[in-house]
């Protein structure tokens, strides 16, 4: 670190408002030579802003501490070599071997908690990792955000690497593909870009929906995709929707995405959520009691990221206070989170959402009306209230026109049966769960 | 009474100058984040004036002291810069974004933040976010961005009780190098307790006024400082 720049920082901190200092000045990295003080900034925008607003004051400070021997220069860059960069399009096998694959080693099949909601996706992923390029190509995993799609993708990559350490695997987000392509076009290196992406053995591309509306990127991806498939290389894609439902994506891509196996991940059920918590806790060295896991799982019904967030809160608070993780302690640690969750998912909110979904009046749900067009939504709403809130059967019965708790129990049983027998009901239930959880 | 706020210097935004009150855990977690803590992402939320910006800047200051590259940006709804500002930030070891609730309804910013988030996380760097509401209440259009906001440790800044407010006032004044007599403290709180952000800014102004006039702080002198403001 340049001593002169350090002195400048100490002076400037008192001359520039603190928010400006933190945003524009402190992040600069200084490289000092005999005649120059080069200040490195992350991008052009920051340099332009500094030159416009702070150049004079910086120059004065540098002159003061260097006795006017150093000229101030700005440049885009960083002293520390970045952890990863855009893939450099290499040709030699050694270089290729050293290229980062961007896989997170913690995401394996072993660390993935299987439940009814994701077992098909997991099974398909295991099969793909055992038969690269031979079955389910592309494997298309779709579902809402935060349900484990990315985990499975990394797990495929990690499983293959165990068997074939030299495999050329790349995980990336679809927006990275777009950024790389734009850079390649700017730098006249589109052929190297093509060569790089077409030489990959397993391409794992996350959140493909972000290619929507980007025609040039879609075209390039279309050719890359065809080339990889023609050469029996594996492609795994994730998306928040079924291929045909992605708006802004060319039909030929939608159709190709459906060639292999599109497989859904649904929001995890209560038991799976609890199992996820126990496993995640174990990974940070905490033996989480089953009752506590169920308590958290019941209060956080939305997605795995929220579950992880809640668990982090409990573990961090326990480490800070030195208290054991008991049910009472967990309730205290999650107090803020839970009171919010309750605000978001109340029986009132469930009734309103269900009534809107089935196009009936909210009052019908509490009425004595026994027509099937009313009783079915009522049963679904009761079942959702049981799954998503912490209210007891009698409390739920009360909220639905003062019904007995046995009516609620029967409604939950009936909906469980219907979900198995009737695809339409199962679909309705999932849709409502998704709407209420986001 | 409304005191118009001028362009203010709020220096010394360090952990030492932050009155923790009921927020000792947050301070500890953020200190760990700035140095070598386990958490990769922390999201803090609380009302205006609760000290979020102070803590974020303290985190940057601490990170710089231990040789890390920090970056701080407070979003302003009326003056959002171009999202190209995020280019290259994925290489910085600690990035702190303040007022991220203001990015709702700015879809270009949401996309830029999402792209930044994924690469920054992949680089194993640390992220500190602050908002006036918890992640679930952010009005983001991108669900993928919203779920990521809740991925790390989420902490609520607990508001100060009345007795703690007096303590905080004395603490901050003492840190700036002057004393606030209890009667003056009560006077200030009676006028500013509902606008803590304004109160802390005013404290900085009082500091300079007492220094310039070489006078102790009394209620008449305080009234004079306030009158000069308007």
Explain what the structure shows.
The complex is a heterodimer of chains A (438) and B (230). In chain A, helix 10 (215-230) links the parallel strand 6 (202-206) and strand 7. Chain A is globular, with a radius of gyration of 28 Å. Chain A has 22 helices and 8 strands. Chain A is α/β, with parallel strands linked by helices. In chain A, the strands form 2 sheets. In chain A, strands 5-6-7-4-8 form a 5-stranded parallel β-sheet, with helices on both faces. Chain A has a 3-stranded mixed β-sheet with strand order 1-2-3. Chain A has helices at 3-12, 18-25, 44-53, 55-66, 93-98, 119-130, 149-163, 174-186, 190-198, 215-230, 251-257, 270-283, 290-299, 304-321, 327-333, 335-344, 347-358, 362-366, 372-388, 393-399, 405-421, 423-437; strands at 29-32, 36-41, 71-76, 139-142, 169-173, 202-206, 234-239, 261-264. Chain B is an alpha/beta fold. Chain B folds into 2 domains: 24-156, P-loop containing nucleotide triphosphate hydrolases (Rossmann fold), CATH 3.40.50.300; 162-229, Helicase, Ruva Protein, domain 3 (Orthogonal Bundle). Chain B has 8 helices and 5 strands, in the order H-E-H-E-E-H-E-H-E-H-H-H-H. Chain B has a 5-stranded parallel β-sheet with strand order 2-3-4-1-5, with helices on one face. In chain B, 42% of the residues are buried. Residues 1-9 of chain B have low confidence and may be disordered. At the A-B interface, helix 2, helix 3, helix 8, helix 14 and helix 16 of A face helix 1, helix 2, strand 2, helix 3 and helix 4 of B.
